[in-house]
Automatic annotation (TrEMBL):
Keywords: ATP-binding, Ligase, Magnesium, Metal-binding, Nucleotide-binding
Protein's name in the database: 5-formyltetrahydrofolate cyclo-ligase
Binding-site positions, ATP: R116, L117, G118, Q119, G120, G121, G122, H123, Y124
Substrates-to-products reaction catalysed: (6S)-5-formyl-5,6,7,8-tetrahydrofolate + ATP = (6R)-5,10-methenyltetrahydrofolate + ADP + phosphate
Organism: Pacificimonas flava
Family recorded in the similarity comment: Belongs to the 5-formyltetrahydrofolate cyclo-ligase family.
Cofactor(s) for this UniProt protein: Mg(2+)
Binding site for substrate: E47
Amino acid sequence: MRSERRRHVASMSDDARAKALSSAAHNVMQVIWPEARLGSYAPTTYEIDPGPCEVRQHEPAALPWFADRTPNMIFRACGPLVAGPWGLPQPDDDCEEIEPDVLIVPLLAATAAGDRLGQGGGHYDRYLERRTKAGTRPRTIGLAWDCQLVDSLPTEPWDVPLDFLATPSRLYGAP
Ligand SMILES: Nc1nc2c(c(=O)[nH]1)N(C=O)[C@@H](CNc1ccc(C(=O)N[C@@H](CCC(=O)O)C(=O)O)cc1)CN2
Ligand SMILES: Nc1ncnc2c1ncn2[C@@H]1O[C@H](COP(=O)(O)OP(=O)(O)OP(=O)(O)O)[C@@H](O)[C@H]1O
């Protein structure tokens, strides 16, 4: 799965990649409202870059932040990024904590029904459980290359399905 996607991404020209990212961003924007506070992610090499989705919002997007290697993820407003406990870039400790209204969620694979396979840390499921209990569950939009879409995934009781899945070619879950 990972190597197939790396090949797919590597085989695109810069122009084709920019067009794909822009169409994915267009699809994401169908289900974000202009004043929504957006939570996004710093992409790793084999994830789709959410950057073109962020630039269309009024406020800069917030990013996941970890104090240490415990799975307690929160979101902080983006400033200059520093290396976090997992080696991923994250906002500095003194950046403002944000509770995003909309989360763009990274994934390895997903189904049209919103089932999601992540990196296996359970960070998003735990975060969404907390926000759901607080009555402030954000809208969730998975962002994926078309080749990350699969017919079915094993689900676990704690999995929180995505509200929407956006790929460069379409938006799944739209009413
Ligand atoms: N771009 C991006 N940012 C993200 C995520 C993501 O999937 N993609 N996350 C999504 O949650 C959070 C970070 N998730 C992480 C998930 C796993 C590991 C990690 O190092 N895992 C170990 C093995 C863990 C285990 O199974 O015990 C490893 O891969 O070696 C690090 C960060 C927040 N930010
Ligand atoms: N709401 C939760 N409460 C407690 N533990 C949880 C919860 N959600 C997930 N976990 C734990 O996290 C582990 C990883 O879950 P899962 O494989 O669904 O992660 P993932 O969705 O792929 O990861 P991520 O969200 O970090 O990308 C599971 O073994 C599970 O025990």
